């Protein structure tokens, strides 16, 4: 045990000496994207209500495979606008179309949050032949908004429930 501890300490010292940037580089998320910096948020396969709470029962259709993509959003505030640059990678679904929404919070779970609802902005995202896509979406920040989140959905031709969905892992403070 003592030898293992010494070896690990020695290895860590060599790593820090040969690559000092490794000791300094730390990923941080600012508490307020109202500054010039942006907050990166991962997109996870979680279905959410309009108030950002997770649904207790996510839609499951036997013919639809589970989500296979991964993504993130870079969210920042630019004056009275909130801007989200959304990245999605799904190599299993090249050329697929997704609907991307930017939703402002707080909002009651009974309030709609689809396209055209107050405090929301939506656009389309089409993956390229390699299964990657990026889209920028923005909206005017409404009075009383304390946070925003992103939803990415693939429409389902056989149901009103999405065939695939991704949402922000956390509510980004405004």
From TrEMBL:
Signal peptide: 1-23
Source species, domain of life: Bacteria
Keywords, alphabetical: Signal
Name of this protein: Secreted protein
């Amino acid at each position: 045990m003592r030898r293992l501890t010494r070896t690990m300490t020695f290895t860590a010292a060599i790593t820090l000496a040969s690559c000092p940037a490794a000791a300094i580089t730390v990923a941080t998320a600012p508490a307020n994207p109202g500054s010039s910096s942006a907050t990166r948020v991962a997109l996870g396969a979680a279905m959410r209500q309009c108030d950002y709470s997770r649904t207790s029962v996510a839609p499951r259709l036997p013919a639809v495979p589970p989500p296979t993509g991964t993504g993130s959003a870079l969210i920042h505030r630019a004056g009275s606008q909130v801007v989200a640059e959304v990245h999605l990678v799904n190599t299993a679904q090249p050329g697929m179309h997704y609907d991307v929404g930017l939703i402002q919070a707080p909002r009651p779970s009974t309030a709609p949050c689809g396209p055209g609802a107050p405090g929301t902005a939506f656009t389309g995202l089409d993956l390229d032949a390699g299964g990657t896509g990026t889209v920028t979406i923005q909206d005017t920040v409404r009075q009383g908004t304390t946070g925003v989140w992103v939803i990415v959905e693939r429409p389902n031709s056989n149901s009103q429930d999405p065939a695939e969905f991704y949402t922000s892992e956390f509510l980004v403070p405004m």
